[in-house]
Amino acid sequence: MSISIQTQDFNLADEVAALEQDNAADGAVVTFTGRVRNQNLGLEVSGLYLEHYPGMTEKSLEKILETARGRWDIGRVRVIHRIGQLDLGEQIVFVGVTSKHRRDAFAAAEFIMDYLKIQAPFWKKELTEQGEKWLDARQSDTAKAQQWDR
Amino acid sequence: MIKVVFFAALREQLNCAELSLSADESTDTIAKVKQLLVEQHPQWQDTFNNASLLSAVNHEMVDGSHPVKSGDEVAFFPPVTGG
């Protein structure tokens, strides 16, 4: 399975090993891991809570991966997104892509991550010293994703 | 029947996760579903006037003109913030 929505943490080395195993055709392996960082807009963050829309999340991620496959020559793809309560420094999301050459692997991985941020139904609630706050979507994320339209 | 579900900050603002509506001409588009929800819950008016609210029918993102029929699942939610 190339898409997982889960509470459990993932192991980067294991995911890379799975992308590489019996995969001599692909010379490039590109990965991205997103983590809970300690500050956002000046406020100290202690953790995150992530919600999603079961059913729609998987469907929208599948469409994003189909679009990536249609556009670039890529081999294996893996997307993991965690949900629930996550502490500072914890891993949130993993995107891994293999390809014969690096150009398509880098482009596809970045595209998948950019589109995930604006189309997949996940919502983050930040836990800070001043209480809980749902994060607003960033116009910069929308603009970044729209760059792929050209 | 039409199932309507709400997520994240919107669910908390409305203090409602899910409800059902009859399927008829007053709920045959997303815009009409919104209108009926506000008629039934006047205190939701400001929340549903928020232009950034997104909607989906059967797990597909759609706009206000999209048709809705019996058996559909309609969702309303804030812009997404994954990753």
From TrEMBL, chain A:
Catalytic activity, reaction form: 2 [molybdopterin-synthase sulfur-carrier protein]-C-terminal-Gly-aminoethanethioate + cyclic pyranopterin phosphate + H2O = molybdopterin + 2 [molybdopterin-synthase sulfur-carrier protein]-C-terminal Gly-Gly + 2 H(+)
Q: Enzyme group, top EC level? A: transferase
> What EC number(s) has UniProt assigned to this enzyme?
2.8.1.12
Q: Name the InterPro entries on file.
A: MoaE_sf (IPR036563), Mopterin_biosynth_MoaE (IPR003448)
Q: Which GO terms describe its biological process?
A: Mo-molybdopterin cofactor biosynthetic process
**Annotated keywords:** Molybdenum cofactor biosynthesis, Transferase
A Pfam match:
MoaE
Q: Does the keyword Oxidoreductase apply?
A: no
Q: Which residues cross the membrane?
A: none
Q: What CDD domains does the entry give?
A: MoaE
Q: Which GO terms describe its molecular function?
A: molybdopterin synthase activity
Q: In which pathway does it act?
A: Cofactor biosynthesis; molybdopterin biosynthesis
PANTHER family (alphabetical): MOLYBDOPTERIN SYNTHASE RELATED
Q: Which family does it belong to?
A: Belongs to the MoaE family.
Assembly, per entry = Heterotetramer of 2 MoaD subunits and 2 MoaE subunits. Also stable as homodimer. The enzyme changes between these two forms during catalysis.
In Swiss-Prot or TrEMBL terms, this protein is called: Molybdopterin synthase catalytic subunit
> Native species of this protein?
Thalassomonas viridans
TrEMBL record, chain B:
Q: Which GO terms describe its cellular component?
A: molybdopterin adenylyltransferase complex
Pfam families associated with the record: ThiS (PF02597)
In alphabetical order, the GO MF annotations are: nucleotide binding
Which SUPFAM superfamilies does the UniProt entry name for this protein?
MoaD/ThiS
Under the heading Gene3D superfamilies, the entry gives:
3.10.20.30
InterPro entries with a match to the protein in the record = Beta-grasp_dom_sf, MOCS2A, Mopterin_synth/thiamin_S_b, ThiS/MoaD-like
What highest taxon heads this organism's lineage? Bacteria
Does Nucleotide-binding count among this protein's keywords?
yes
Q: Which GO terms describe its biological process?
A: Mo-molybdopterin cofactor biosynthetic process
Question: Is Nucleotide-binding among the key words of this record?
Answer: yes
Write out the entry's keywords from A to Z: Nucleotide-binding
Similarity-based family: Belongs to the MoaD family.
**Protein name, as recorded:** Molybdopterin synthase sulfur carrier subunit
Please report the organism this UniProt entry assigns to the protein. Thalassomonas viridans
